[in-house]
Amino acid sequence: MCDENLPGRVLASAAKAVEGIIPVKSKSVYEKEYSRFIQWTNDNSVKTVNETVLLAYFQELTADFSPNSLWTKFSMLRKELMVKKVVNSAKKFSQLEAYLKQRSKGYQPKKSKVLTREQVLTFLKNASDESFLMIKIALVKGVFGACRRDELVKMKRSDVRDMGEHILVNIPASKNDKPRSFMVIEDNEMDALRLIRSYISRRPLHETNDRFFLCLRGGRCTAQPVGKNTIGAIPSKIAAFLGLPDAKSYTGHCLRRTAATLHANAGGSVLNLKQLGGWKSSTVAEGYVDDSECSKRKNAGLICGVNKSVDIKTSSQFSSVTDSKGVNFSGHFTNCTFEIKQKE
What residues does each domain of the chain span? Predict the structure, then answer.
């Protein structure tokens, strides 16, 4: 049956469903990508759209864009072509996908540098509150919550709740539409709770803007919210303060990468890391864990024969005597006694 023979109500419902294929918040970006392609077809007197045309288009884009960018452009353009019914929705473009995969082989994307725990603590300790308080708060929240730049920009005052022993921060909307929350706890080295409370106390008494990050002038917050470019430049300012080389390599993604790296280096699991960063896929989290100092140290210990395991029996009496060198204890223990004795 042709679409023309379907009832109007059915066609309207289908059209509404198709509109939902393109993310609302990214619709303008998708439209812009589609317009570029249409302009290219006009410039090259192309009257039809098929895989051969797309191969030619992306081959030309290869000179100016990285493999990651090419995949992003392909994904957006394919959806736009489907929505606008320029191509069949079942079309797979297998040759084009094979071409993009080949271009991606061996490609290492340029990533933001990360801060070490020592560098984070040094900045929080040595940078003055009067000049760097807002930057300190962004650093604390970025590290505790693995926050993206956009999440910090859009964070509202109502998203931050002081619970006494800790501060609870909600991130209702993220890049992957997966809400999450995190805690900022008392830490003598970071002094995080005092910093956040100090910043909140400097907000205007009669607030007209619910954005959490407001500009600081003369020790008080103004009504002007902090913009995305200012938030994005925070890591490079921290790096410059610390005298780190190539400060501009600490980009807006630095805080999120720093949080994930610190978490993985401390022995965090893939599941814990996914919960921290809100990743749906395990791929990114696995990358951090595999590349962590903790993982490398464990592998080196296994090779050297240093790491030993202790057999743990559940819900029964069990005793064991073992050399404690290189032994790692993990798990939930109840009614247990551990005796650690120095070798004579």
Answer: 3-104, 117-294
